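chain and backbone:
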Amino acid sequence: MATHDDKIEEAIPLASMKDGEPQAESSTLPAPVSAIPPKAKPKVHIAVIIPIWMAFSVSVILYNNHLYSTLDFKFPVFLVTWHLTFAAIGTRVLQRTTHLLDGTKDINMNKDMFLRSILPISLLFSGSLIMSNSAYLYLSISYIQMLKAFNAVAVLLISWIFRIAEPNRRLALIVFMISSGVALTSTGELRFNLLGFLIQVAAVCFEASRLVMIEVLLHGMKMDPLVSLHYFAPVCALINLFFLPFTEGLAPFHQLARIGPFVLISNAFVAFFLNVTAVFLVGVGSGLILTLAGVFKDILLITGSVLLFSAQVSPLQIFGYSVALAGLILFRTTGGK
C-alpha cells in the first residue's frame, strides 16, 4: 500500500506537541490515538529501526511503481485489495504467534463501534489507497511525493471547517508556506497531467478526512499501526473487492500468470512488513526524529525516481519543495506530531 505505509507521520493523527509533551493550545487537534501503550513498547535501538523503516517505505513505492510502469500491471485497485487481504491474514497470524497485537485485548469491538467508527473510516481509507495508487499511473514518484506535503494543510483546513481546531496566525503562515511550495512544484512539473493531479488531490482529501475522523471517532483509543491494520484491513479489502468489478473487472486476473506468484507475494510482503517496522518506529522515535526521517525518506524517493525511472525534476520544483518542507517541519516541530 503506497499511502498508509509510505509515511508513518500520516498514519498517526496530528496533535500539538513540543519537546515530546502535549501542549494545551486551542488551535490544535484533540489528543491523538495513542501509538503504543507504555508497557508494550518494543525495545529496538532507533539507529537500527529507522534505516529498516526507510528501506521498507522506499521499497514499497518503488516496487509498486515497478509493477505499474515496468511490468505494465496497471491495476491499482486490485493491487491495493491484494495488499489489504495479505495484511488481514498477516495480522491475524502475528496475533496468534507474537505479542505485537496484544493491543487488541484492550479494545472492546462491538457492532455499534464497527458501524459508527470502523466502517466510515474504512471507506475513507479505501478511497485514499485507491486514489493514491492510481495517481502513479499518471504522475512521477517525485511529483507525487511533493504533492503529499499538502496532506498536513488538508488536515488543518478540514479541522477548521468542522471547528475541531481554531486557526491562528502561526498556522496560517505554515499553510501559506506549504501551499506556496506545492504550487511552485506544480508550476515547475515538466510532465504535468491534470487527471493525475486531480486523482492525487482526491487522495489527499480522503487521507486528511480519514485522519480527522480518527481523531473524532477513535479519540483516546490505543491503536498502533498493526492494531489499526488488524481492524481496518479486512473491511477495506471487502470494500475494494466490491468496486473491483466496476473499475478493473477480470483484467488483472488474466495478468496474474504473466506476473507470477513471487512478484505478488513479495510485493505484499514488503508492504505488510512496513507496518510491522512502523510499530517499532513509533515506540522509539520522538516527533522531531520521525519528521526528519520522513523528510529524508522523501528525498531518497525523489532521488530514486530520477535515477531508476528517469523522472525529471526542475530547479523550480526543488525550490518549491524546499519551501513546502520548511513549512512541514515547522508545523510538526512546533504544532504537530
